[in-house]
Amino acid sequence: VAGLGNYGLRGTRHSVGMAVLDRLARQLAVAAGWRVDRQCCADVALATARGLELLLLKPRRLMNLNGLSIASAAEIYNLHPEDIYLVHDDLDKALGKVAIKLGGSARGHNGVRSCISALHSNEMTRLRVGIGRP
Q: Which residue ranges does UniProt annotate as crossing the membrane (predicted)?
């Protein structure tokens, strides 16, 4: 599960994917387990939920380059694009509304575009979190 955002700009609406992962880590009681993985340039935490092993990942790059971290992690942890869930902001959704989408285009989202390019696939599941338009 990868939370897209701008690592240096936490707390902004465009980094809501990382905020969701922070919340998920707290709910799964692994918030103290975040560590820097220099190989994939990301903060990672391991968790278990309902019998599934999860790798939580927050890229330490700018949004336009998030895909590089996710592709590196996919190679290191032997993940396929269909194993990856992207959590990201969606300007076209009202604040706080969420939607799940399987595959498809980036719909203008630079972080998703970066992931599609780096993974050579658009088969990732996306949790789109509404941030509304300014």
A: none
14 is annotated as an active-site residue: yes
First CA to last CA across the chain, in angstroms?
27
Among the CATH numbers 3.40.50.1470, 2.30.42.10, 3.40.50.1820, 3.40.630.30, which is that of 1-128? 3.40.50.1470
14, 88, 109, 120: the catalytic one is 14
Q: What long-range pairs does 99-102 form, CB within 8 A, spacing at least 24?
A: 99/127, 99/128, 99/130, 100/125, 100/126, 100/127, 100/128, 101/125, 101/126, 101/128, 102/126
- pLDDT > 90 in the chain, percent: 89
